[in-house]
Design a protein that fits this description.
- The chain is α+β, with helices and mostly antiparallel strands.
- It has eight helices and five strands, in the order ααααααββαβαββ.
- It has helices at 12-19, 26-34, 43-51, 68-72, 78-96, 109-120, 157-166, 187-203; strands at residues 127-133, 139-147, 171-177, 206-213, 218-220.
- Helix 2 (26-34) crosses helix 3 (43-51).
Length: 227
């Protein structure tokens, strides 16, 4: 059945007008973006095929990591609509980031997760970031120290503190993601945290926490008494 042949109450556009976008399924939301199908498949059917690529049940966040080639292999999608899907995924990530983080006070791991969860939770590579803080725990800036390192213990300790020293920071928080989705600290994570803590004590910059981000979850090594 084509979308135009559906009852008025079941058409995605009309459902948004009458009930709001929150009532649409993921397939229906994607169908609105896709706009039209082909003579053989509807936009909703194309959207359902896209969702089948989500092998790990990540939700729509999986679109960030799915390849253009995989999208273009879906009947009825094509090059332009595949690119639109990737642009939509990136837009969603950027939209979810706080627009003003400078001078935001960081008082808990929850504050850290609020800032970086959307960016890191679906990453396929390990990314290590440092939140640079002043004496009032206000965020000065966020620095990306490594991408795709695979293991935080391979990061040079000096890289963690280089920008903090430039910014005259007194405190830092280290954050990295686990692409597996697990938030269990590894032995390497714990060893690395102690190295950062010890180096910080020598130069007068306090390591407040090391936060691990998984799939919509996070863990604080400080809260877990791991350092």
């Amino acid at each position: 059945m084509r979308i135009r042949d559906l009852p008025e109450t079941e058409k995605p556009y009309e459902k948004i007008e009458n009930y709001g976008a929150e009532c649409l399924s993921n397939a229906e939301l994607l169908a609105v973006i896709i706009k039209s199908g082909t003579k053989n498949v509807t936009a909703v059917e194309i959207a359902q095929q896209i969702l089948l690529l989500d092998k790990e049940n990540q939700g729509l966040g999986f679109l960030k990591n799915v390849s253009l080639e995989d999208l273009q292999n879906i009947n009825g999608l094509g090059r332009v609509k595949s690119i639109q899907m990737k642009a939509l995924a990136e837009f969603a990530i950027r939209f979810s980031k706080p627009q003003t983080i400078v001078r935001k006070a960081i008082t808990s791991p929850e504050d850290v997760a609020e800032i970086l969860m959307a960016e890191l939770k679906n990453e396929s590579q390990e990314i290590v970031k440092t939140l640079i803080l002043n004496n009032q725990n206000e965020l000065i800036r966020i620095v990306t120290n490594a991408v795709g390192s695979g293991n935080s213990s391979y990061i040079e300790i000096k890289d963690i503190f280089k920008e903090a020293i430039k910014s005259s920071a007194t405190k830092i928080i280290v954050v990295h993601n686990h692409p597996s989705g697990s938030i269990e600290p590894s032995l390497e994570d714990i060893k690395f945290t102690y190295k950062v803590k010890d180096a910080g004590e020598l130069i007068g910059i306090e390591l407040i926490d090391h936060v691990i981000i998984g799939n919509s979850k996070f863990a604080s090594l400080k809260r877990l008494n791991k350092f």
